[in-house]
Design a protein that fits this description.
The protein is α+β, with helices and mostly antiparallel strands. The protein has five helices and twelve strands. The chain has one domain: Gcn5-related N-acetyltransferase (GNAT) (Aminopeptidase, 3-Layer(aba) Sandwich). Strand 4 and strand 5 form a beta hairpin. The relative contact order is 0.15. The structure holds coenzyme A (COA). Coenzyme A (COA) binds next to strand 6, helix 3 and helix 4.
Length: 182
């Protein structure tokens, strides 16, 4: 099957694409977003799409640029791959999309990570994504005075090298990082 790999800003997505994405993400509080709300909320993201020849969505991932990790007072910006979902499953589309995303971010020299629960560790490993097992648990999000532990387990190395990789490797329960989405 032929496919197209496209990158769109939120404002370039067609209304049916937005409703398909919201439907497959399945996040209750976002499900009823109208296209305008969606475009505003994700205006700092890119949507990486795998589509059929007939422009049907097969798989999608969001790259969030509003993201960094604070480690020991130093801020490390990463592009965050989030919301990877296949509309048509078990046909190799997520694998193809991951490969395209990796190639694209590598050519643009954009340091990028994602997160995953352990039950998908083998999926990512199988498709050649580097993994820092368990390291997502060394990352916390600030909510008021509280620190919230990540729900994910692993950090996925979508495109990471040099000092960024060294910084992630320093994460530990004794030296945790702070997630910053501002
Ligand atoms: C995970 C997901 C994106 C995979 O998409 P997909 O297009 O079906 O995946 P592909 O067809 O490219 O790859 C399928 C392969 O991965 C394997 N795979 C899929 N889910 C797996 C899992 N949980 N654990 C191990 N392997 C898995 C399949 O066994 C298959 O391997 P095979 O080809 O050797 O049989 C899809 O199941 C999905 O949309 N899930 C819901 C959202 C989600 O969990 N996203 C990930 C967030 S981190």
């Amino acid at each position: 099957m032929n496919y197209q790999y496209l990158i769109k800003a939120a404002k370039e997505l067609r209304d049916p694409e937005i409703s398909t994405i919201l439907n497959y993400w399945g996040i209750e509080e976002w499900k009823h977003f109208d296209p305008g709300t969606f475009k505003e909320k994700f205006k700092e993201s890119e949507f990486h799409l795998l589509c059929s020849d007939h422009s049907d969505l097969l798989s999608v991932g969001r790259i969030n640029f509003k993201f960094s990790i604070n480690l020991d007072g130093e801020s490390w910006p990463f592009a965050e791959l989030v919301g990877l979902v296949s509309i048509v499953k078990q046909k190799g589309f997520a694998r193809k999309l991951l490969k395209e995303i990796q190639g694209n971010l590598h050519s643009r020299q954009i340091q990028s990570i994602g997160f995953s629960a352990t039950d998908l560790r083998e999926f990512y490993r199988k498709w050649g994504i580097g993994i820092l097992p368990g390291k997502a648990k060394d990352l916390f999000e600030k909510s008021g005075d509280n620190l919230i532990e990540s729900e994910d387990d692993d950090i996925l190395l979508i495109n990471v090298n040099g000092n960024h990789l060294a910084a992630l490797n320093m994460l530990s329960p004794e030296a945790p990082g702070l997630l910053d989405f501002s």
